[in-house]
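User: For my dataset I need records formatted as: sequence, then structure tokens, nothing else. Please produce one.
Assistant:
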Amino acid sequence: MELVYKGKTKDVYKLKDGNYMLKFKDDVTGENGVFDPGANTVGLSIEGAGKAGLKLTTFFFNKMNEKGIPTHFVNSDIENNTMTVLPASLFGNGVEVICRYRAVGSFLKRYGMYAEEGQKLDAYVEVTLKDDDKNDPLITDEALEMLHIMTKEEYKVLVELTKEIGAVVKEELAKKDLELYDIKFEFGRVGEDNHIALIDEISGGNMRAFKGNEYIEPLKLEQLMLN
């Protein structure tokens, strides 16, 4: 087993059979000790966050696989905080795709002249480059194609998958009287046919969920969803 990447919230190992193993850590993104799913830095460490993130990721990835939505998920080992996944190639150095149902976070910072905090959005999809130094800049489908990161056809698939996956997560949260405000996904090309598939995770660490006006932090979200 070879360590190939140390991430903010997960470490990645290459396995002898060609698959990869993700090791979930207790670090979460944020600033000055405050959790923020949209932040580019590790803001704090929450005991149990890694296991909670893996449990919720396993729950949602199994849901996606049941529905025929492509993912890189193979299996998980909850006790050891690890998940086995298929190899995937990134778009460029990686992109993040955000699906927004409420005007909060960076959306509100950018468009506050026109948007009210918390106003409803119709599954609005944004794509950003994974680039911490430049604060994950937004990018258009035209720029993605011009820079040879992905084609416009791949971009369309990405947006459709994002809305489909977001709808599944939103529906599952609603069963627990929770509302999904926004969520961040990652995708890659998987398999011999290079089909686009959901990768990384779906956990409390990459979404904002509320119960009424109360923000639900990642560990509590996992407890509410799975217990």
